[in-house]
Amino acid sequence: MSYRIAVGSGDGVFVDQHFATALQFLIYEVDGQEYDFVEARKNRLDCECSEYHKNKFLPLTEKINDCRAVLVGKIGPGAQNALKEYGIDAFDIHESIDVALEKLIGYYTKTDSKASSKK
Hints:
It is built from 4 helices and 5 strands. Strands 3-2-1-4-5 form a 5-stranded mixed β-sheet, sandwiched between helices. The protein is α/β, with parallel strands linked by helices. The longest helix has 21 residues, at 97-117. 26% of the residues are buried.
């Protein structure tokens, strides 16, 4: 089963962006133990639209709503709850992107195999 991971990174090397102010999310496609970069999704932080003020996390969650998880350098509980409503796991991690992705893939491999063995 393949899935996508969004990574908040300003330099394309480290997970270093705060979720709410991330300049971009780098999207990776994971298939088994392998992953590939798919695209960079830039964020518009100067949005003055009323929808943004109703739910400040809505534009960000919609930007990554096709992802299983997001890796960021910092995320607050409000943003985590907003992502959870979309079924997106949020991880606060301070690593290089490669190390962070490998850790997350290992985590999902374990949890997915446990879940499938209970069925």
